[in-house]
Amino acid sequence: MFEDPTRLVLGLLTGVVFGFLLQKGRVAKYGVILGQLLLKDWTVVKIMGSAVVVGSVGVFALVDGGQASLHIKPLLLGGVLVGAVLFGAGMAVLGYCPGTSVAACGEGRRDAMVGVLGMLAGAGLFVALYSPLQPLIHAWGDYGKLTLHEWLGVSPWLIVAGLVTASLLIVWFVESRPHRREPAETPGARHAAG
Amino acid sequence: MNNPLTKTAWSPYAVGAAIGVLSWFAFATADHPLGITSAFENTAALAGQAVAPSLEETHPYYVDKAKEGESPKIGWEWMLVVGVFVGALLSSLSSGDRTNLKVPPLWRSRFGEGTAKRFVVAFLGGAVMMFGARLAQGCTSGHGISGTLQLAASSWLFVAAMFAAAVATAFLLYGKEGANNV
Asked: Where are the transmembrane segments (chain A) (predicted)?
């Protein structure tokens, strides 16, 4: 039932840093998540995009050096598509994603604590309905643990280089535009953002 | 005064880049991507087992997972979730950016003061979100960050469909005018 203590400590340590970063990134806040989904506040996309681009460079270097292996989720079209739509709708209603709802609990937010209880219920429902859900998950095809570089028949580094270049251009374009000065951008008001 | 730990907000690019480096650390030390929701599945499964031990032999979930060598456990990812709570707690304590909000202001501007209404909807939203995450085998972390950075086809598809559904739902809830209150 328990993994060995080294892995438990490593998991805890990694999580503490992750939670610290999510809170400092202000994504453990309902207003910031909904601000993204209403296309007004691009904090979530900036954080996720930077994490993906920086992460991909190091992870593919580790894989090339034999220090780690890829962990690819299978492309089960039914499970991924139906799951993604339910996930997106539920996230917009709750106002936190799974990681940020746990971080929001750390920040003290009561509605996130209720949301986490709901998440446990949703996980329980999935476990209970595991068998009857299998036809839905496997509907429309199982393409296995497919990666974009296998699919396109190119080196992963070509795609990583493309991501790095595209993201640098996007950041340069976005950040070189004159910023709108709104009251919400002042530090005091940001603090109160909910 | 310039201690970054006491700041309430860091640059989103810096935070994102640091999460990217953290995923190098996770792959290098534990050979594991960052992810949140399988820990919830494990917790629910362990709770079920605790209430009804016979499930382990009779329920297809436990039988299948045992065959795959992935019986429910308290592991690296479970501790990661505990750590996320602790890390956010430490960060908010260090900056004073803490709250005991029951109803977020944006929600209140659209749906009113009612705490019960917000809590019921948050519970249901959390349940639907987690159910979807387990169908798709990942969330904003497992697919959205870890999967896409490994160039997994499933993860890029998940992110596109999830974001489209989330934006559509948010606009259904708030409308164009509501969006101006952000």
From this structure: 6-22, 43-63, 75-99, 111-131, 151-174
Tell me which of B70, B98, B126 is where a domain ends.
Answer: B98
User: What interface predicted TM-score (ipTM) does this complex get?
Assistant: 0.96
Q: B175 to chain A nearest CA, in Å? A: 9
Between A37, A118, A125, which is nearest B166 by CB? Answer: A37
In a domain, residue B89? The reply is yes
Rounded Cα distance, A45 and B163, in Å: 10
- What pTM, to 2 d.p., does this model score? 0.93
Contact A194/B144, CB-based, under 8 Å?
no
Rounded mean pLDDT of A159-184? 85
Task: Report residue A139: phi and psi, to 5°.
Answer: -65, 150
Q: Are B104 and A31 in contact (CB under 8 A)?
A: yes
* Residue range of the domain that includes B12: 7-98
Token readout for A77 is 């079209």
Q: Do residues B72 and B35 both lie within one domain?
A: yes
